[in-house]
Amino acid sequence: MRRRLLAAPVAEAPAPWLRVAFAQVGGLLGIGFASHPDTGRDLVMVISHDGHGLFDAVTRLFDAVTGEKIARDREPDAEDDKRDADPAAWCPGLRPVTRSRVRTAGLYGGGLHTAGGDGWKLEVVAPAWPNERVLLSRDGGLPHSGPHGEGWWHIFHSHYSELRAAGFSPSGQTIAVATSSDLSLWTRAADHRAAVVATDDQL
Fold first, then answer.
1. How far apart are CA 179 and CA 161, in angstroms?
2. Distance in angstroms (rounded) separating the CA atoms of residues 167 and 174
3. Closest Cα to residue 55, out of 102, 108, 124?
4. Which residues contact 80 (CB under 8 A, 6 or more apart)?
5. Quick check: 195 pLDDT over 60?
6. What's the average model confidence in pLDDT over 46-61?
7. pLDDT tens for residues 55-98?
8. From CA 137, how far away is CA 109, in angstroms rounded?
9. CA-to-CA distance for 41 and 11, rounded, in angstroms?
10. Cβ neighbours of residue 129 under 8 Å, at least 6 residues apart?
């Protein structure tokens, strides 16, 4: 199995998944998902050394991505860290989800959904530690009896930065992979609306 994983090149995620964002976020610590109260779209909370940001992205013609910064907090209230037994695994929401607590995953723990519904699964493997790889599958998961590209796909290789988190949004419509330096997003929403985008000058 290790030899098969090492031999599998990074591949495009299969239909209906579409990669909609790759954004550099210096000092990324963790991410979490929220749902827009009006549209139901997936939103992504990005936590970095520079604060918290909530972002939404919409895929437009020719798969171009326009990022919309919904809210930003460069100095989160230190009192927020005292409101939960495990503050490392959540952060307070920003407009328009200010009344929500956003569960997060990253450097300090936590986790995202590893199943997206309809048989889709996401796995993090490290056949050549410390470089981790993210696998998307519909064949039930490891040990992946079929060939690469037929039931399982190697969609991300974190060979340049430390992997922080990988998983599905609660809706199952968005996949996020975060490293210490960037964020990648895929969506399978019918209108290609996903969540997300942060750049160094935004975060």
1. 6
2. 8
3. 102
4. 87, 91, 92
5. no
6. 63
7. 664 433 222 233 344 444 445 555 444 444 454 576 655 555 55
8. 24
9. 26
10. none
Residue type, position 114, single letter: T
| SS3 of residue 193 by DSSP | strand
Q: Is it true that the peptide bond before 147 is cis, omega within 30 degrees of 0?
A: no
Strand 101-106 vs strand 65-73: parallel, antiparallel, or unpaired?
unpaired
Q: What angle do CA 123, 180, 21 make, to 5 degrees?
A: 70
C-beta of residue 178 within 8 angstroms of C-beta of residue 106:
yes
Asked if residue 21 lies in contact with residue 184, where contact means CB atoms within 8 angstroms, the answer is yes
Over residues 97-145, the pLDDT tens digits come to: 556 667 889 888 889 999 998 999 999 999 999 999 999 999 999 999 8
CA dihedral in degrees (98, 194, 28, 85; nearest 10)? 40
The span from the CA of 110 to the CA of 32, in Å, is 10
